[in-house]
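Morning, I've got a small favour to ask if you have a moment. I'm working through a protein record and want to make sense of it properly. The fold is given in discrete form, as structure tokens running alongside the sequence. Can you walk me through what the tokens say about the fold? Thanks so much in advance, here it is:
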Amino acid sequence: MPKEISAGGVVVRPAEKGWEVAVIEPQREANAKKATEKQSGGVLALPKGIVDPGEKPEHTALREVREETGIQGSILTKLTNIKYVYVRTWGDKQRVFKIVSFYLLRYVSGIVDDVSPAMRIEVKKALWIPLEGAERKLSYRGERDVIRLAQKWLEAHREEAHQ
């Protein structure tokens, strides 16, 4: 079974009532049908992508966040690795074992959804949503778990998170 290694980010910024998190609505694809689509009819996910050869996962997370959301963040901590198997919907239809390393990032700069035209192939839109309740809006179970870990880390490291 082929293996894919990816990395992604949970980018947060302070808001009037707690924190906001940057999420993406991917362009519709066959895999999205397997996700739990929310009332808006769209899939919401965390920005992530494949680690390039010679690239460290934390650099991939920063790059993918920038490419898919238009914003830049700085890493606060590594949250976790999630692991799952999916079936490629293109080409060989093989089952693939995937590992995604997720990092908690603090927003630094940029405008959400300011992404290149080339990225629109992958990302329909990027937006900020309240961190509180985000685990109910994300479409993929593993990513909902990652949001819960981010919430716990932010609660336990209030001072560090606000620096």
